[in-house]
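new request in #modeling-help
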Amino acid sequence: MNINLTIIGQIIAFFFFVVFCMKYVWPPITAALEERKKKIAEGLDAADRAERDLLAAKEQAEADMQDSKEQSAAIIEQANKRASQIVDEAKEAASAEAERIKLAAQADIEQEVNRAKETLRTQVAVLAVAGAEKILEASVDEAAHAKLVDKLAAEL
Amino acid sequence: MATELMTSKSYISHHLTNLTFGKLPEGTTRYDGSVVGDGGVWTFAHSSATVNEAATMGFWAINVDTMFWSISLGVLFLWLFRKVAVNATSGVPGKMQNFVESIVDFVEENVNSIFSHKNALIAPLALTIFVWVFLMNLMDLVPVDWIPYIASQMGIPYMKVVPSTDINATLGMALAVFALIIYYSIKMKGVGGFMAELSLQPLGKWLLPFNLFLEIVGLIAKPISLALRLFGNMYAGEMVFILIALLPFWAQWVLSVPWAIFHILIITLQAFIFMVLTIVYLAMAHEEH
C-alpha cells in the first residue's frame, strides 16, 4: 500500500484517454445518435402527412362517388322521360295512321257505292224498256219513247 | 497449524502485493538476506514477512502491474468505442453499435440531468470514467489465481490484476478530477470568486478563518472520498475473493459464485458512483453561489 509514481502514471493515462475520447469517440457517436433522432422524427412526420393525405383522398373519392351517383340518376331519369316521350309519339302516330286508313277506306266505300249506283242506273233504263216492251207487246218506237224512259231513269 | 496459518497469511499478502519497480538505496537488506551494493539497484521489489522492499523504494517507484492493466483496459475501451464511432451509422445500428450507443446514451442522460452548463469535456470525461473504472473493476471477476499463476510461470513474482484495488490508481484519477474542479472553479468564478466561495460562507465574513477551514476540508474531502470509496470497495471485494480461494477447491463455488454475482452489482455501482460524483463536483465548480 505505497503511494508512488503510479499515481502520476495513472493521471497521465487518464488525461490521454479523456482527450482521445473527447476528440475521436464521443462526437461521431453522438452525431450518429442525433442524426437518427432527426430521421425518426422525419419519418413520423411523413407518416402523419401520409395519413392526412389518405383521409383527404378518401373524402375526395366519396364526393366523386356521390357526384357520379347523382349523374347516373339524372341520366336514368332523362332516359325514362325520353322513352315515355317516344311511346307517346308512337301512339300518336299510330292513331293518326289509323284515322288516315279509316278515312281512305270510307272514301273507297263511297266511291264503290257511287259506281254501283251509276251501273244500276244505266241498267235500270234497259230493264225498264225491256219490261215495257214486253208489257205492251207492241213495238214501241224506241226513239219516241227514249225520252220518257230517260226521264224515268233520272228519277231513280 | 502454525505453518498453515503462515501460508494462508503469505498467500493473502502475496495476492495483495503489487509488482513494484524502483530503486533500492545502497545498504538495504533484501528479501533474501543480501545487501544492496554501491549506488543502489533498480529492480522489482520483493517482500517477505520481515522486509518490505516496495516501501523502501518510496515514491520513485512504479506499480508495473497496475499501470499495465489500467492502460490495457483503457486502450481496449477506446479501441472498441473508436471502432464503433468510425462505423457509426444513423441507420439501423448493429449489435455492437447498439451496445455502445446504450452506454453513451446512459452517460449523456446522467450528464444532462446533473450538469446544466455548456461544457464539451464533461460528457466524454464521464464516459471515460464510467467505462474505464468499470473495466478495471471487472478484472475482479477473473478468478483470483489465474493471472497471477500464469505470471509466476513466466517468472513474474507479483501480479495484482485489478487496478482499482491499488490506491495509486484511484487516487490518480481522483486527483485529476480534483485538478479539474480547481480549474473550472477559477475559470468560472475567477480567483477572487473562488477565494470568496472558500472563505465567506457558510457563516459570513466575521468567521472567515472558520469558514476557510470548513471549506478547505470539504474541498479536499472530495478527491479523497472519491479515491477511497472506489479503492475500499474493490479492495474489500478482492479480499473476500482471496479468502474464498483459501477454501478447499470443491467448496469454493458455494461462496464464490454468489459473491461474484453480487460483485457484478458492486463493480457497476462503483463505476457509476465515481462518474456521477465527478459530474456533481464539476457542476458545483461551475455554479456561482
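bot summary: Chain B is about 65% helix and 5% strand.
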